[in-house]
Write a structure and sequence with these properties.
globular, single chain, alpha+beta, 5 helices, seven-stranded mixed sheet, 2,3-Dihydroxybiphenyl 1,2-Dioxygenase, domain 1
Length: 245
């Protein structure tokens, strides 16, 4: 009986340890980094987001942030612009929209290049607010992003979402086309160990579109992948942050 009791106690303690490890793994999140838009005239798009959505210069002159830039984590979320002629609207894409929190403003607008923009009034998070994905299976997508990028599950006005340090990833149900080549071309996370993350993705059979390259002209290592629902994703390792305490 004593031996059986000790065995049962060991099993219970082991279960508690496993649950604790799982909880810590879910709470650890890879920092969110940027959104990349496809536009015919990047300078015009930069000016539009600065004027209409209170943007400001970010890491480099051609990028927009919505809070003062600082070289420490969490980095402010940036908008980047690539020259793409004829990019399709973000509506109906796997990356449906981006969102901004501005006092007294709510609703939906569109930029001149086909990006759907959600306006919300959230006092708890001003400026850049969220990315909205469109997926066939919400729970499957939530589990996929939790597994590879972490995040904390929350609900926003009935929408299921994952919270990262300075933004939300909202996951909505619906049929969608792949995001690559659309007005919202891709989203991005900033791992501190890009080689380890890409190795883990490969080990689980995920679709790596472009393997690790770099450092590029900005001093970053980057790689690209696609999630099971067609969301194009960039991984960017900010090497300049690795030396910081």
């Amino acid at each position: 009986m004593k031996r059986a009791g000790r065995t049962l106690l060991a099993l219970v303690l082991g279960m508690h340890a496993a649950l604790g490890s799982a909880s810590r793994a879910q709470s650890a999140a890879t920092p969110y980094d940027h959104v990349h838009l496809g536009v015919p005239e990047p300078q015009q798009a930069y000016a539009w987001y600065v004027e209409r959505l209170r943007g400001q210069q970010a890491e480099f002159p051609e990028r927009v942030a919505f809070e003062p830039w600082r070289l420490q984590r969490p980095l402010p979320v940036q908008l980047l612009f690539s020259r793409i002629d004829g990019a399709g609207s973000s509506e109906g894409s796997a990356i449906e929209s981006i969102g901004f929190s501005l006092q007294g403003q709510q609703g939906t607008i569109r930029d001149p290049w086909g990006v759907k923009i959600d306006l919300v009034d959230d006092p708890g998070l001003r400026g850049f607010h969220h990315v909205r994905l469109r997926v066939a299976d919400v729970e499957r997508a939530m589990k996929w992003y939790e597994r590879f990028f972490g995040g904390r599950r929350v609900t926003l006005q009935g929408d299921r979402a994952l919270r990262y340090d300075n933004m939300y990833l909202i996951v909505s149900q619906g049929a969608a086309a792949p995001s690559r080549g659309r007005a919202i071309d891709h989203v991005s996370w900033g791992p501190t160990d890009i080689h380890g993350m890409v190795a883990a993705l490969k080990a689980e059979g995920q679709k790596i579109v472009a393997d690790i390259t770099g450092p590029n002209r900005f001093g970053h290592h980057i790689a690209y992948l696609e999630d099971p629902g067609g969301v194009y994703i960039e991984l960017v390792q900010h090497n300049e942050l690795l030396a910081k305490p």
